[in-house]
Write a structure and sequence with these properties.
The chain has 18 helices and 32 strands. It is an alpha+beta fold. It has five domains: 85-145, Orthogonal Bundle (Arc Repressor Mutant, subunit A); 172-337, Rossmann fold, CATH 3.40.50.300; 347-438, Beta Barrel (Elongation Factor Tu (Ef-tu), domain 3), CATH 2.40.30.10; 442-449 and 461-563, Translation initiation factor IF- 2, domain 3 (Rossmann fold), CATH 3.40.50; 567-663, Beta Barrel (Elongation Factor Tu (Ef-tu), domain 3), CATH 2.40.30.10. Helix 1 (3-10) packs across helix 2 (14-23). The longest helix is centred in the first third of the chain and has 41 residues, at 37-77. It is elongated and about 135 Å long. It binds guanosine-5'-diphosphate (GDP). The site of guanosine-5'-diphosphate (GDP) has 15 residues, from helix 8.
Length: 669
């Protein structure tokens, strides 16, 4: 066999093979071209052994590094953080700190604060206690004592604590891919999916359900496959523990950018290990050393520079380095010892939710504990239902979903929201009742689904102002969405049709033009592709760009106010008292009366008052003084009138005449 053929089989350069052979104990000379087949077979075996040893060594090294990385991160970067409002009850404070309330009460007592379970303590006191307990305290400006996140966290903690130690089994790691816009997250997720999803038996088409699983070395890994900004939201749920490992994508030709830093801070807050995927290494301007230098400047020294940060070089477009990245993810995940109890009541998180025309409300649940099964009764945020069918990421029907598996479920009665917790319940009988009692805090996602919840009756349909919204970083996007939801009024509201991070894309512009809606951006511009579409549009649109949040909010406020129906405001113009009743003519009554205040004119609208009570209403049809019709009657004059009213009148009843003015309504911020 030729040496070059053998080298090809072993996937190395012929010269490298020639150099290595003596190290493996084969002395065939540096210029040899051929090698006999028996010897070649022995070389292959020795080579494989060497590779296995090398892999083992690498694993051991990596393990050491990741352990060190975790230890140092726990000490320095990942100090636990807690957000506290201006006042908080002791039990909610315990939830936020993630500690048993009895223990917190004891700590409070040690510090001279005698407070019972539902007593309130102020921010300053709570902050001192939290800092004493090793937390870094942030101020929670939402003003809400219990946030939606707290409620979710509490539920998950309850579910996780119901697992039985003896039933725990190893579960696949759940991975989230984060990074700056355009650095290749979507392409990487596609590359991983295309190269590693196991083909379905029926040859079904892979479905996008918000998460998928791949097999590497016979072991599954779950990838959360949501758009960039939703990945951020996912990280916030469950105290940031929906994902077990993060992949931070950095484009080799662009380097660390604002959303890279934001992703890093979210990952560090969540306290999960991460792998840096240096992507686009195929590109001309790719400069891997520059990325490593930038990481170093952030105190994240790469492993091959003597540090602890694990980096993998990939080209998502050319599909290179993907296998190695997956192997690295497995190595990192193995150190986390991820386990779950498949026999516990099922509990998971919604990673994608929508209303399908044919299937109704559907949601993809990522199972954390227990096993979801067809027929199970579930409560998902404010929605509930019985699972009618389940579909996996390969489009195949499945009957059960064990821990770490994502499944699309059909059977919910109303729509769920991304980030909602899905809990299996024994029966749905009491769910509706329970829901009314549950502390319901609207989170930002409710802006999309508020239709179900608001007083949207047929007589007073809620008018919507639909927008496509983009911001540079998730922090701004969330702040804007939260402020927009506060602008909602019973009769008008903002509907965010699409939201995202980074510049307006081609599809934003197309969608906005097709739907005739506004596109609003905060600290973003229109991408090159977007500009091209913009200039070719038949229905031209103007993207609105802002760099001050209040200006964006003022803009939206004006648009909403323009949708508001004007308010009818009554102005009282006169008061008259009935002094005689003459006769009834059909619906009309002829009366004698006297104007006490103001000036009364024919066609005036009137409230009929008896004492302090309004007994009816109507209008003046004709006014007369003597036998003459008159255009008005002034204060102090007596007159005869024909009035059309919806009640019976008697002497001494008062007629309050008014005019209606249409007044433009405004929203208060
Ligand atoms: P995302 O916004 O992070 O999801 O980025 P995308 O996956 O949408 O990628 C943005 C652009 O970069 C697309 O035009 C991709 O084709 C391109 N891209 C992604 N990965 C690579 C890569 O490895 N090499 C090259 N040359 N281009 C890439």
């Amino acid at each position: 066999m030729n040496i070059s053929e053998l080298a090809r089989r072993l996937n190395v350069a012929p010269n490298t093979l020639r150099e290595k052979l003596p190290e493996l104990g084969f002395d065939i000379g540096k210029r040899a071209i051929k090698i006999d087949n028996i010897l070649a077979q022995r070389v292959v075996e020795a080579w494989k052994l060497m590779e296995r040893e090398e892999m083992k060594r690498k694993r051991a090294e990596l393990k050491k590094r990741v352990v060190e990385q975790k230890e140092s991160a726990e000490g320095v970067v990942q100090q636990k953080r807690v957000e506290l409002p201006s006042v908080i009850t002791v039990d909610n404070f315990a939830i936020r700190l993630g500690m048993p309330v009895t223990k917190l009460i004891a700590v409070l007592m040690q510090n001279g604060v005698m407070a019972a379970l539902n007593e309130r303590i102020d921010f300053d006191t709570a902050a001192i206690i939290a800092e004493d307990l090793g937390f870094f305290v942030d101020r929670d400006l939402t003003g809400s004592e219990t946030t939606a996140e707290d409620v979710k966290k509490q539920k998950l903690e309850q579910a996780l604590s119901s697992q039985k130690e003896e039933n725990l089994i190893t579960r696949p790691p759940v991975v989230v891919v984060m990074g700056h816009v355009d650095h290749g997250k979507t392409t990487l997720l596609d590359a991983i999916r295309e190269t590693n999803v196991v083909a379905t038996e029926s040859g079904g088409i892979t479905q996008h359900i918000g998460a998928y699983q791949v097999q590497i070395k016979g072991r599954p890994i779950t990838f959360i496959d949501t758009p960039g900004h939703e990945a951020f939201s996912m990280m916030r749920v469950r105290g940031g523990q929906v994902a077990d490992v993060a992949v931070l994508v950095v484009a080799a030709d662009d380097g660390i950018m604002p959303q890279t830093l934001e992703s890093l801070s979210v990952i560090q807050r969540a306290g999960i290990p991460f792998v840096v995927a240096i992507n686009k290494v195929d590109k001309e301007g790719a400069d891997i050393d520059r990325i490593k230098q930038q990481l170093t400047e952030l105190n994240l020294l790469p492993e091959d520079w003597g540090g602890k940060v694990v980096c993998a070089q990939v080209s998502a477009k050319k599909r290179t380095g993907v296998e190695e990245l997956l192997e690295t993810i497995l190595l990192v995940a193995d150190l986390e010892e991820l386990k779950a109890d498949p026999t516990a009541p099922a509990c998971g998180t919604v990673v994608e939710a929508r209303v399908d025309r044919g299937e109704g409300p559907v949601a993809t649940i990522l199972v954390h504990t227990g096993t979801l099964r067809i027929g199970a009764s579930i409560v998902v945020g404010n929605a509930y239902g019985k699972i009618k069918s389940m579909i996996d990421y390969r489009g195949e029907r499945v009957v059960e979903a064990p821990p770490s598996m994502p499944v699309k479920i059909i059977g919910l009665k109303t729509s769920a929201s991304v980030g909602d917790i899905c809990e299996e319940v024994a029966s749905l009988k009491h769910v509706k009742k329970q829901r009314d009692f549950r502390i319901r805090i609207e989170d930002t996602s409710s802006i999309h689904h508020s239709k179900d919840k608001d007083s949207d009756d047929e007589d007073h349909p809620v008018k919507e102002y639909p927008v496509i919204l983009r911001a540079d970083v998730i922090g701004s996007l969330e702040a804007i969405i939260s402020s927009l939801s506060k602008l909602n009024d019973p009769s008008v509201r903002v509907k965010v049709v699409h939201q995202g991070l980074g510049d307006f894309t081609e599809s934003d512009i197309k969608q906005a033009s097709d739907m005739g809606i506004d596109v609003l951006g905060f600290n973003v511009t229109v991408s090159q592709a977007g500009k091209e579409v913009l200039s070719s549009l038949e229905h031209r649109i103007e993207p609105h760009q802002f760099s001050v949040i209040y200006e964006l909010l003022d803009f939206v406020k004006e648009r909403l106010e323009a949708l508001l129906d004007p308010e009818e405001v009554e102005h009282i113009v006169a008061k008259a008292v009935i002094i005689a009743l003459f006769k009834k003519v059909g619906k009309d009554v002829i009366i004698g009366a006297r104007v006490e205040e103001g000036t009364l004119d024919p066609q005036a609208l009137i409230h009929v008052m008896r004492g302090r009570e309004e007994i009816g209403e109507g209008k003046v049809v004709e006014l007369q003084i003597g036998k003459q019709s008159v255009p008005q009657v002034k204060s102090g004059s007596e007159f005869g009138a024909k009035i059309r009213i919806d009640c019976d009148v008697q002497e001494k009843d008062a007629l309050i005449a008014y005019i209606v003015e249409m007044k433009k309504r405004t929203l208060s911020l």
